[in-house]
């Protein structure tokens, strides 16, 4: 240094440089032993070979590439970044000392409000590290979360000095570990069960020895897989739930999405997810009441309690066209200006009068309009809907829908003759009849109130013809949607036929595939059950 840099005091400069480096946190000190110094070492896989179906996920913590790779957006402001190094350096161990463990998940009432999930970890019969874990309620209880928790528990509890081989029949777990880098780069915002996935990835990263994963076919006689499945089912019988840690160490916790990996679409989804979380913290009381009504109605009618997520998903179902989806969404949020909305203190007296139904002298909220109003329309349209449903000759009896049945029209679970699985045609017809009829009641009410200013009732003949036209238009739309020209929106002919079978005019004279015939009509008018041409 003295000759090359012309430094008169090289030793003093070196001492000063060391002092400056010593002020840096370990994570940023180049003199520290960093993960990149030892995580790039390849170890012999031993028995975990590609030929046997094993693969090694990339769970390195080091970021490589351009400087832009280190910038993140949508980070968690409540999570303080750590300047410490993760302690991941492998101990002295023999790579050939290994253990193979199978994990699985199980769930009762999967996708319902009262779902109960368990996770299983199995090594061999009677092994002390076998586990049966009942999932807590603060986690979404489902098959997938059970599978994720099982893999996380295996990563945490199995001897850290052993090379770990993880067998699972869950492609969700396999893909989560294989795509850990990509999921992390996108900030977990668009990942289902993001907090749990973050914790699972951190748990596997926390293991200091290599790990491998392998997919095995479930219920195919694999001893360990069958054992894990048994443990997961045993967990469902437990009354006491287990604690699942969703807060990984700060040295392994990464929040936010890489700016370099963010597209406009992903950024938009992330923003919407953040807004949705904020909205859920301050949910509207009217919306909560609507959701409870749906859950109560579905439980009474179909015998299960749907989750909020499934209710909202049913409203967005592709069997509803856009106007129906918008209608159901607004009804669920009580967003239409009806009933007590007009009774706000800021409203003048002339507008407050709109809260009262002129025909019934009752508060005209959406429940009243769709299910209780005595003005011609509501009762007659539900009678027509009942006639059409009875032509289906379903074992499921008709009952006049309540407001919760209408919002949750897509939650039907009607079983066929074998009672082993829901009947797709009957469920779809129920969904169509309930939601389309409710929307027609609303549009005819608006016509009466807005166009005629509530001065006169609509004639019954007009109401009947409106319903028949509506249901025939929907039948015609279904037939047209079976054409290949509809592309990804095409509906299978089999489903359309199953939906409308038994309800058509002169059905016995129609060919087996009537979806290509123009002018097929429902066999009902409301009076004599004859088709209308």
What does this structure look like?
The protein is an alpha/beta fold and 533 residues long. It has three domains: 1-32, no CATH class; 43-282, 2-Layer Sandwich (Nucleotidyltransferase, domain 5); 285-467, no CATH class. It is built from 18 helices and seven strands. It has helices at 10-22, 35-38, 143-157, 171-178, 180-185, 194-205, 223-235, 264-281, 285-302, 308-315, 322-332, 349-352, 366-372, 378-391, 403-407, 424-451, 460-480, 493-500, and strands at residues 72-73, 98-108, 116-122, 131-134, 163-168, 211-215, 257-258. It has a five-stranded mixed sheet. β3 (116-122) and β4 form a beta hairpin. α16 (424-451) packs across α18. The chain is elongated, with a radius of gyration of 31 Å. It starts with 9 loop residues before the first helix and ends in a 33-residue tail after the last helix. The relative contact order is 0.08. The model is unreliable at 528-533 (pLDDT under 50).
